[in-house]
Amino acid sequence: MNTAKKILVLLGSPRKKGNSTTLAKQIVQGAESAGAEVETVYLNGLNIKPCQGCYACKKKDSKGCVVDDDMQSLYPKITASDAMVIATPVYWFNMTAQTKIFMDRCFGLFDASFTVNPLYKKQIAIAMSYGDTDPFNSGCVNALRSFQDAFRYVGARIAGMVYGSAEEPGEISSNAVLMQQAEDLGKKLGRV
How far apart (Å, rounded) are the C-alpha atoms in residues 21 and 43? Predict the structure, then answer.
């Protein structure tokens, strides 16, 4: 019987070799070294439409979100995962639009009374990069707070957050302390 933890990594940057992706890869390295099975999804490569606010997902006997796009392929992966890693740079004082659309569409995972709640007690790790040297001036704190509030509301557990300043793609890898923190977070997520 396979008891490896399943971790879903969601990359919210439009840059495939950006700094938040570099942090996510370090988390993956730690998780895999702890025996986890990891799947990575590049959100910018998917066709995910914004939530339409139709509430079809909350109607009696609903089968979930009715918007027919690539988010439909993510819902079963989210549900099957033991943990998720969400990686995003800060764009205009918050998470990227790709990440926000994903977050909004997670609304379709729950029924009206939250009896169906695949995120309840799921571990969540956040990896973020930002341009300014200060997490407050950059808006990183705004995004971190958005994640904290949303996941607290649905009963998920924030396992950890790693974030740091970097401009050029891959530059964040020179921050040895942060890279070690990311790897350690991955090991924490990957432990059975």
Answer: 12
Task: Give all domains of the chain, ordered by start, each with its CATH number.
Answer: 6-190 (3.40.50.360)
% of the chain residues with pLDDT over 70: 98
Residue whose entry in the numeric block shows the structure tokens 């399943």: 6
140 and 105 in contact (C-beta within 8 Å)? Answer: no
Asked whether the beta carbons of 23 and 32 are under 8 A apart, the reply is no
Long-range contacts at 51-60 (CB < 8 A, ≥ 24 apart): 51/101, 51/104, 51/105, 51/107, 51/108, 57/107, 57/108, 57/110, 57/111, 58/110, 58/111, 58/112, 59/112
Beta-strand relationship, 157-165 and 37-42: unpaired
Q: Which amino acid is at 119?
A: L
pLDDT tens string 92-114: 999 999 999 999 999 999 988 88
This prediction has a pTM of: 0.95
Q: How would residue 144 be classed by pLDDT, with cut points 50, 70 and 90?
A: very high
